[in-house]
Design goal:
By secondary structure, the chain is mainly alpha-helical. It has a domain of about 120 residues. The chain is built from 13 helices and no strands. α6 packs across α7. The chain starts with a helix and ends in an 8-residue tail after the last helix.
């Protein structure tokens, strides 16, 4: 897109949506530690005439290894984010397919059709609230009413309650003979896939990246940044430049670490670049409810056309 081509400078210096505010305190802390190391080295050399310093070569190898570990962690977090996005794309498709199939193969009863569409539109809202640990959203109250919203809130697993109500509506239509076997199987298959998708999202939510992996990487970062000022002593023109060099090294390392943290939970609004679940849910609701609403104008138009066809033509006057 053309607008994306001209966003380089704006995004390069953007604070909103960046991990910089979260990493900045740690970057500053390591810079102060570097300044303390410089002061200590200067004091020891002036007092005891002892040279303090470490070789740089080990840090070159360690830095490359550390960068690789951080990239692997960031990629693991991005894989979780992307998988969650694909799963919610599936929820979008399954919700639309289920509503279309129900309106195409289901009963002609207007109340049944309206109820089925409303419960279908409620499922993504309930799924969003379940993943975020929230009570039913106001959209659910508007779609189903206060009584049903309260019943959903008391359930141990809210998406399962909505899926069960959809299954009950399908069973009623099947038992009354208004829904044939093919339509029942087709719609119920879409309903079951919704539960599969929310289950996969819950797997991402409840199984974060292994804690031992995070601990080891952060210990490696801390050890690397705490000791790098000793390797920089006597290798820069001014010893007081060492804190700034340390901060320059710390900034990308700590930001990459924080990006891995932010991508672990793509559902929480507390995390940066979380999935826009509210907008996705509103899109699904608008799509499926519009299908049911457009039936009435179509039926009215068909009735008008039938009436006009039945009327006799006016005789021509010569």
């Amino acid at each position: 897109m053309r607008s994306d081509r001209n966003r380089f400078w704006r995004e390069a210096f953007s604070i909103h949506g960046s991990v910089t505010p979260y990493a900045a305190p740690y970057v500053l802390a390591f810079g102060l530690i570097g300044a303390a190391v410089c002061a200590l080295a200067w004091l020891v050399e002036r007092t005891f005439d002892v040279w303090i310093g470490l070789e740089v070569a080990p840090y070159e190898i360690a830095g490359a290894a550390l960068g690789l570990l951080l990239i692997l962690r960031t990629n693991a977090g991005y894989d979780r984010w992307w998988e969650a996005r694909k799963l919610w794309g599936g929820i979008v498709n399954q919700s639309r397919n289920m509503a279309i199939s129900a309106l195409s193969y289901g009963p002609e009863d207007a109340q049944w059709r309206e109820q089925f569409v409303r419960w279908t539109a409620s499922f993504p809202h309930i799924a969003r609230c379940s993943l975020r640990g929230e009570p039913p959203a106001p959209e659910v109250l508007a779609l189903l009413g206060g009584r049903e919203a309260a019943a959903i809130a008391t359930c141990n697993h809210m998406p399962s309650y909505v899926a069960r109500r959809l299954a009950e509506l399908l069973r009623e239509a099947r038992e009354s003979g208004d829904l044939d076997g093919f339509g029942f199987i087709q719609i119920d298959k879409e309903r079951a896939l919704l539960i599969d998708h929310i289950g996969a999202c819950e797997r991402i939510l409840k199984t974060p990246l292994p804690l031992v992996y995070s601990i080891k990487i952060r210990r490696f970062i801390t050890l690397f940044l705490l000791t790098i000022p000793f390797a920089l002593l006597h290798r820069v023109e001014s010893v007081w430049l060492i804190p700034f060099v340390t901060m320059l090294v710390a900034y990308p390392l700590l930001c990459l670490d924080q990006i891995g943290v932010e991508l672990q939970n793509p559902f929480s609004t507390a995390n940066l670049s979380h999935l826009p679940l509210k907008q996705i849910c509103e899109t699904i609701e608008g799509n499926v409810t519009n299908l049911e609403r457009r039936e009435k104008p179509v039926e009215a138009l068909a009735s008008t056309n039938a009436t006009a066809t039945a009327l006799p033509e006016h005789p021509q006057v010569h």
